[in-house]
Write a structure and sequence with these properties.
- By secondary structure, the chain is of the alpha/beta class.
- It is 20% helix and 41% strand.
- The chain is built from one helix and ten strands, in the order H-E-E-E-E-E-E-E-E-E-E.
- The strands form two sheets. Strands 1, 4, 7, 8 and 10 form a five-stranded mixed beta sheet that branches. A five-stranded mixed beta sheet has the order 3-2-5-6-9, with no helix packed on it.
- A hairpin with a 5-residue loop joins strand 2 and strand 3.
- The termini are far apart.
- The relative contact order is 0.20.
Length: 133
């Protein structure tokens, strides 16, 4: 092979590799956000196994999570938009968080203190906007 042909093959190889790498980097940049928080009872004790539901107000998409032993939950990779949050746990009133806006790459913290009551009752939480990081 001639030197010119080898040089052409080398250039094509480098350009191809650069294209593949740039495509992978573009896929890694997502337009998402996260909602995290802790669910506790009135005494401040964590509630294990509470159901946390975030609903995208614009699309109607529902995302769910359960709290762990420390009462924490995390809803990751949510498309940016407006979300309401509902928390339900056996022996407690259902808590509803009014819609708030998630921005790109932000983490909204939505902590909820549940009130003792029946599962069929609902209580709307009217706290300040979630802290975004």
């Amino acid at each position: 092979m001639s030197a010119r042909r080898l040089l052409s093959l080398a250039v094509i190889s480098v350009v191809s590799i650069a294209f593949v790498i740039s495509t992978q980097v573009a896929r890694a940049q997502e337009v998402t956000a996260t909602i995290v928080g802790t669910i506790t009872d009135p005494s401040g004790a964590p509630i294990r196994g509470a159901s946390v539901t975030a609903t995208d107000a614009n699309r109607g998409t529902v995302w769910t999570a359960k709290t762990n032993d420390s009462g924490s939950y995390s809803l990751q990779r949510l498309p940016i938009g407006s979300y309401s949050v509902k928390v339900a746990a056996t022996g407690f009133d259902t808590a509803l968080r009014p819609p708030f806006v998630l921005q790109i790459n932000q983490t909204a913290r939505v902590d909820v203190t549940m009130k003792v009551g029946e599962v069929s009752e609902s209580v709307e939480v009217t706290s300040e906007a979630p802290v975004l990081q």
